[in-house]
Amino acid sequence: MENQKIARIAGIWYLVLAIGAGFSWMFITQVYIPGNAALTAENIIQSGWQYAGAIILSIIGQLAFVFLGLTLHRLLKQVNEFISRIMVTLVLVSIPIMFSAIIIEAGALVVLKRADYLSVFSIEQIQAVAMAFVNMHIMGVHITEIFWGLWLFPLAYLVYKSNFLPKAIAYLLALSGICYCIGSMSYLLNPVFFERTNIFLSIPEGIGEMAMLLWLLIKGVSPPKGI
């Protein structure tokens, strides 16, 4: 069955995205010590290949996101092609923003590893520049997070309107989208509020996407009953 094959492929791309993006974000949050440039710089230097590996995984995750969007479009355009195109557009818009954030993340490593070329600056100044790169990377991720939320709304609509995916997943995807958007905007506008609410937002953020990922991988799609 063609739809079943497409659904499984989408599930694989979703899994690659989850591993790549999840590991890289988890790693950067462990390396980054808020308000402590010296310790953050030391963590980056000591992590060595792991920092570079996190960057590579992040790139792989973003490439998987592109293929995920295109594969889901192929699966769901039969439900509503216009909404499906909106979904893919939101995915594609997020990619260059995230790649910019990844380049900035790599900048911290470049500054610290090539410190011998910056002999006119003190160690403290070099560490401060590296810390600024990490801070800008985190800001870029949270800006991208807006689109990580927005693309889930057309996806939720398409899942809801389809007759081969559970409507319950549509509700969970919409909840995830709301939490992503709230998390992103609160970080940009009120970091204190973000710190207080992030623990409550992070769980529902992942529930919808994890449900979609697992359903596509394990169940695929139900036999169509006619669109």
Describe the structure.
This protein is 85% helix and 0% strand. The relative contact order is 0.13. The model has no long low-confidence stretch (mean pLDDT 90). It is built from 8 helices and no strands. It is mainly α. It has one domain. Helix 1 runs antiparallel to helix 3 and helix 2 packs across helix 5.
Residue fraction in strands: under 5%
* Number of strand segments: 0
Helix content: over 70%
Distance between the termini: 16 Å
The main pleated sheet reads as: none
Uncertain segments of ≥5 residues (pLDDT<50)?
Answer: none
Average of pLDDT:
90
Number of discrete domains: 1
Radius of gyration: 19 Å
Identify the overall geometry: elongated
Structural class, judged by helices and strands? mainly alpha
Q: What is the H/E order? A: HHHHHHHH
Q: Give the number of helices.
A: 8
